[in-house]
Amino acid sequence: MDAKTESIWSGAKPNAPTPRLPRSVSCDVCVVGAGIAGLTSAYLLAQAGKSVVVVDAKPEIASGESEYTTAHLAWYLDDHFTHLASVRGDDVAKVAAASHRAAIDLVAEIARSESIDCDFQRVDGYLFAGTEGAEILDDEAKTMARLGLPHTRCTVSFAGPGSVDALRFPDHGQFHPVKYMAGLARAIRARGGEIYTRTVVEKIRGGEPCEVTTTHGDTITAQSVVIATNNPFEAGTTLHSKVAAYITYVIAAEIPKNSVPPALYWDTEDPYHYVRFAPAGPADAFQYLIVGGEDHKTGQAEDQPERWDRLKAWAKAHYPGMGPVHQHWSGQVFETPDGLGLIGPTPWNGPHVYIITGDSGMGMTHGTLGAKLVADLALGRVNEWASVYSPSRLMPGALRTLLGENLNMASQYTDWITGGDIASADGIPKGHGAIVRTGLTKLAVYNDEHGQRTTLSAICPHMGAIVRWNPGESTWDCPCHGSRFSATGTCLHGPSTADLKPVD
Length: 504
Ligand SMILES: Cc1cc2nc3c(=O)[nH]c(=O)nc-3n(C[C@H](O)[C@H](O)[C@H](O)COP(=O)(O)OP(=O)(O)OC[C@H]3O[C@@H](n4cnc5c(N)ncnc54)[C@H](O)[C@@H]3O)c2cc1C
Ligand code: FES
Prior knowledge:
Helix 1 (36-47) packs parallel to helix 5, helix 1 runs parallel beside helix 8 (363-378) and helix 2 (81-88) packs across helix 3 (90-113). The protein is built from ten helices and 24 strands. The strands form four sheets. Strands 3, 4, 5, 6, 11, 12, 13, 14 and 15 form a nine-stranded mixed beta sheet that branches. Strands 1, 2, 7, 8, 9, 10, 16 and 17 form an eight-stranded mixed beta sheet that branches. A four-stranded antiparallel beta sheet has the order 21-22-23-24, with no helix packed on it. It folds into two domains: 1-235 and 262-268 and 338-396, FAD/NAD(P)-binding domain (3-Layer(bba) Sandwich); 417-493, 3-layer Sandwich (Rieske Iron-sulfur Protein), CATH 2.102.10. The protein has helices at 36-47, 81-88, 90-113, 135-147, 177-190, 236-240, 304-318, 363-378, 386-389, 399-411, and strands at 25-32, 52-55, 72-73, 121-128, 152-156, 164-174, 194-196, 201-205, 210-214, 219-230, 244-256, 264-267, 274-279, 286-297, 325-335, 342-345, 353-357, 432-438, 441-447, 453-457, 468-470, 475-477, 484-486, 491-493. The chain is an alpha+beta fold. Bound molecules: flavin-adenine dinucleotide and FE2/S2 (inorganic) cluster (FES). Residues 460, 462-465, 478, 480-483, 495-496 line the site of FE2/S2 (inorganic) cluster (FES). The site of FE2/S2 (inorganic) cluster has 12 residues, from loops.
């Protein structure tokens, strides 16, 4: 697929440009990050009468992973209840289901009360047998019966004769995430909240008051700070050891309107495929069929373009009525060893600083329930989910996954002693990048469409791993903790807050 990657939601971003933080300011709560987690936190706090200031590094709100999501609103956990119950116990699994359900209810309530026209719709969710992992259905049915969670055994039909085994879960949801976030921003401003973009935060000090320092020197003094940057920055190794960065791929194709009932689907494969439908324009005779999957660890694959092709083939095989692919894109998710978000007081910043991270591929619900959780803590209220999501929690039951992910991160540093992708930068085709070894170090060299070369240090400014070229998105991706940079070195995704260094 050769068209530029862009999500189908991007066009709904607010037209009016958001200003950069103009000077140092004070407020009750500073929220860092204007994705679903940050905007929902700011909305709930502004609704409770707090003065809020939201800052974001990007030029516009809703420009992080919340722009690239597929926006399934699910309480069924994609890492499965059997896994969570086995590593954290039945009580935690019940709280996880209840809190994700509450998140869907909260989205519905905010959309209703703020009159946000975001195509919110209640739909059923289906876990269906893929070419592998069909036994998961039996395990899940048993676990969910034990936990008292609503589910029905059923079959679903795709192309071809017959049908496949499935489990149906009621009361899921779907929406247009960018329309929803634009509505949240309107509601925050209507309550006196301030939102600034192109404002990169590099340091947060907790205390009374807390201080947030931006890269251009201005500060925000606040009673509390919410870090809603998707992936934590300045976290040292404490939290990075608990979140593993993965890239996941999406295509959005035409399918005739009303040819399939709206629902969310996931198969049992690993990585799994995920499917939903979304309205196109009112005059269009089609709706979107949105199919995702093909996940891999960030910076640890070289066949990005083929992954979209495989998704397209999978989608066509299951939905032969599918028309042309309109858009395709990819983005990052951050997996935790037990599959639940890391939400609550940060273990490293000092008092009154809270974080929402570790979305585990369910950041629409984790971001929303996380916002409720941190807003309660910042307001001095008790929140019954706090211990379940605490960022400081130990996960002895998930130790194997934790160790596996950390060994993988550590092994990425062997790139320091290997050769480059190519012997000389002269061999890099137009429109591509490659890593070139020079003496003891490595360079990230991009040769643009006109043959103009950009030479950067390949050393990730975060913790010194060597970045890798992503030919699907034309980015430099760090295989260690998921920092991503444009072809010319601009930081697109943290934890790094700095760009790749240019080299003469
Ligand atoms: C392809 C794909 C499909 C997905 N599908 C689903 C799904 O169906 N359902 C679901 O629940 N989840 C899904 N997810 C996950 C979900 O989209 C994300 O977890 C969620 O959007 C994250 O929201 P957020 O607010 O935490 O982060 P973001 O939306 O990434 O917002 C974080 C913001 O913080 C800003 N920021 C970062 N660092 C700094 C800094 N130092 N200073 C200032 N600002 C900073 C960024 O610019 C960004 O705007 C999917 C993700 C992807 C990529
Ligand atoms: S993201 Fe941590 S070393 Fe690159």
